[in-house]
Amino acid sequence: MRVLFVCLGNICRSPTAEGVLRHQLKLAGLEDQVEVASAGTGDWHVGKPPDSRTRRAALARGYDLSAQRAQQVSAQDFSRYDLILAMDTSNLGHLKALQPSAGTAELDLFLRRYEGELDEVPDPYYGGEEGFEQVLDLIELACSKLVVELKGRL
Ligand code: 4NP
Predict the structure, then answer these.
(1) Ligand 1 centroid to 154 CA: how many Å?
(2) Residue 37 burial (C-beta neighbours within 10 Å; 0-12, 13-18, 19+)
(3) Which domain holds residue 142?
(4) What is the pLDDT of residue 117?
(5) Among 102, 110, 114, 141, which has the highest number of CB atoms less than 10 A from its own CB?
(6) Which PANTHER family does the record associate with it (predicted)?
(7) Protein residue with least CA distance to atom 8, ligand 1
(8) Which stretches of the chain drop beneath a pLDDT of 70?
(9) Which protein residues touch ligand 1 with a CB less than 6 Å away?
């Protein structure tokens, strides 16, 4: 199984989801069976590590995101990944426009799929520290539900 998380810049929300899912898969003993990656719909931050606020908030909960580098999502990703999960409806719209007809990946809105209180992971980039904590809270809960789904599909 291959899972790709997608947000706008690939420096806040989707790198957090990548780090949290990797951690949870390791705890579940599934790290060799699921490949996890993240990408942005935009290209502004390609090659850069996650935002320092994102890295700091994640590290405080035990997730080290320092090795990640931003990349832009591409049409080929629809044949490389089994599941592509968008952080908000704008990201989902961009992905739908990019999706080739021959693409095999399943595309969904991350939080809607896992029945959280919110449908979207709010963009924390222009806000305060609490936004980064909310991103982590939402992503940790949704990833725990994703791990249950992945266990059933493997
Ligand atoms: P992300 O957050 O999509 O969660 O990585 C953002 C990062 C950068 C920008 C916007 C959102 N930006 O405008 O540069």
Answers:
(1) 32
(2) buried
(3) 2-153
(4) 86
(5) 110
(6) LOW MOLECULAR WEIGHT PHOSPHOTYROSINE PROTEIN PHOSPHATASE, LOW MOLECULAR WEIGHT PROTEIN TYROSINE PHOSPHATASE
(7) 9
(8) none
(9) 7-13, 40, 44, 123, 125
Provide the CATH number for the domain around residue 93: 3.40.50.2300
Nearest to 20 by CA among 7, 42, 39, 5: 5
- The residue count of the chain comes to 154
C-alpha 61 to ligand 1 mean position (Å): 21
Cβ 153 vs Cβ 4: under 8 Å:
no
Query: Per the structure block, which two tokens stand in for 49?
Result: 């590590």
Number of domains composing the chain: 1
Segment 65-109, tens digit of pLDDT? 999 999 999 999 999 999 999 999 999 999 999 999 999 999 999
Scored b (16 or more CB within 10 A) or e, 63-88 reads bebeebebbbbeeebbeebebbbbbb
